[in-house]
UniProtKB/TrEMBL annotation:
Keywords: Dioxygenase, Oxidoreductase. It comes from Metabacillus rhizolycopersici. The keyword Oxidoreductase applies. This is Ring-cleaving dioxygenase. PROSITE patterns: VOC. One of its GO terms (molecular function) is dioxygenase activity. Pfam families: Glyoxalase. Residues 8-134, 159-284 form the VOC domain.
Amino acid sequence: MMVKPLLGIHHVSALTANAKENFHFYTKILGLRLVKKTVNQDDTSVYHLFYADERGNPGTDLTFFEIPHAGKTYPGTNSITATSLRVRDNKALQYWKNRFNQFHVDHDEISLESGRSTLSFRDAEGQRLILVSDEGNEGVSGGKPWDRSPVSPENGVIGLGPVHLTVSRPERTIKVLTDVMGFREKTGYTKEKDNKLVRVFETGEGGTGAEVHVIEEDKVGRERPGRGSVHHVAFRVEDEEELTKWVELLNTKHLPNSGFVERYYFKSLYFREPNGILFELATDGPGFEGDEDFEHLGEKLALPPYFEQQRQEIEARLIPLNTKE
């Protein structure tokens, strides 16, 4: 089965225990736009919040499922251990360091990793995030920050950068990345903080928006996820026709998978790589403007048509969340 190369990272989905505080941090401090306030389609009793660039272009979405009673995360292996967010240049990182100091955001110092300037930080729940400079970057283009963001456009986040996978048996993950998903290996690097070797893989046009960084860790147990952990990473597929080919390919490779899944804002396919990390393949469209116009994205609870008849019941189970502020 011939498939086209994956186009890059589509979105990353993580867990929060508090949608209100989560909304405040990612919109008021990080300056992302909430482009969709909806529900987890597998459990409609909880919110699913999508933060992104001005209109939720593919490759810019950082999403959160709200699990109100989620326990703390116990970091470990066989998990997604960092999500990167792209900024335009090195100068922007100094702006962010100052901003994090102003808002008392836990952060490290600016450092050089894989030839790029980076700034690691954590939200209040311990979500592990990295700002990465796109200065000199070639590859998948970034998005466009929302012009009504509290962060100036020249410093705003323009999309998702490399996703870090920490695994106990890297050869198993790498085999799926390269032999099944078509990633190619680039030059790796050594992390400044703990001296660990990182192997870098890219797809499509490459660059910061199309990389997976694989780190070996066999001295700690499997991560116990909770608030502040990542649920899955999704990779970009051009359209529904191409996604159908990926379903056939995974079946041919005998990789257990969800088959085609309708998510309304995009179409999806889910599977776990051999170390247990959940991967999703998602189409670039149709996008977030099918049920809300551009000017009012994220202001009301949006439900796909197949849940609309349950709106009253769904809204009754959710804690009200004002996203018009």
